[in-house]
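Worked example 3 (structure in, sequence out).
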């Protein structure tokens, strides 16, 4: 049972790291939106950045998801 507990402990730690990263991303997004205000150029640049980050996140999720 120790192997199972070790595995679960590692998975919980990995998940906590992902959650912490998501919190940083969301807080950063908020800060960027506030800084952009209503400037259309800044808002479009932010949207482009989000598109890029979304693609990277989707690829990481697919790569990290075990096959059924």
């Amino acid at each position: 049972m120790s192997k199972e507990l070790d595995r679960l402990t590692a998975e919980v730690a990995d998940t906590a790291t992902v959650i912490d990263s998501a919190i940083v991303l969301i807080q950063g997004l908020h800060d960027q939106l506030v800084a952009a205000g209503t400037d259309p150029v800044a808002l479009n640049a932010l949207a482009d950045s989000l598109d890029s980050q979304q693609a990277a996140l989707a690829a990481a999720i697919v790569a990290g998801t075990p096959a059924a």
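Notes: The chain has one domain: 2-64. The chain is about 90% helix and 0% strand.
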